[in-house]
Amino acid sequence: MTNKPKQLPSKxxxxxxxxxxxKVAATSAPRSRNQRGRLLFAMDATASRGPxxxxxxxxxxxxxxxxxxLGGLDIQLCYYRGFREFHSSPxxxxxxxxxxxxxxxxxxxxxxxxxxxxxxxxxESKRAKIDAVxxxxxxxxxDVDRLAHTxxxxxxxxxxxxxxxxxxxxxxxxxxxxxxxxxxxxxCRFDAGSAQQLRDLLGAVAVYAAxxxxxxxxxxxxxxxxxxxxxxxxx
Length: 235
Description:
Number of domains: 1
CATH class: Alpha Beta
Order of helices and strands: HEHHEEHHEHEHEHH
Strand content: 15-25%
Radius of gyration: 18 Å
Structural class: alpha/beta
Largest sheet: 6 strands, mixed
Number of strands: 6
CATH architecture: 3-Layer(aba) Sandwich
Number of helices: 9
Strand order of the largest sheet: 3-2-1-4-5-6
CATH topology: Rossmann fold
Helix content: 40-55%
């Protein structure tokens, strides 16, 4: 018997990792022509989020309107707030139903639970395909490595996360960019005072969830501002 040490495998190169992610994405079942898109709409509902929540309530119905010609869209709302509160709605197929749920929610003080959002997205994607996740938040108060690991797991399932940051908190920005990168999604900051920016961003992601990258490119053509920036990040 020899005591020759085992040779450890070398670390994967970036190109090998990218190739693996492309292979995983290629194995995703294509949507049938009449199948509706599915979008998980996640929001931070802690105390600082009150004004943005109210704005989102008023513009969310347009997410359905933008996708009507692409076969439609089903949306599930999930949010966290307070002390370990986490809630998710049934899958909804109309803006009226989504508005009814969102209008009953009141923001409450608490710390972020973004990792929990990503774990919930993983669980939902195991039940049925999810085309995209939207997350809207302004800060991050969790373990960075654990958050990145969970985002990587979601990315391997072929679920892109579109992260929209309100404000300029630098720690949150780095984590949000990592989530977008690890899931092959996109990151964008929006101005807290501009409802139009948020409307454009949500409309763009709804179009992507319902019709894919080509539909988003068509939607972005001729537009200015944040929408082309978002579209350019999709690989």
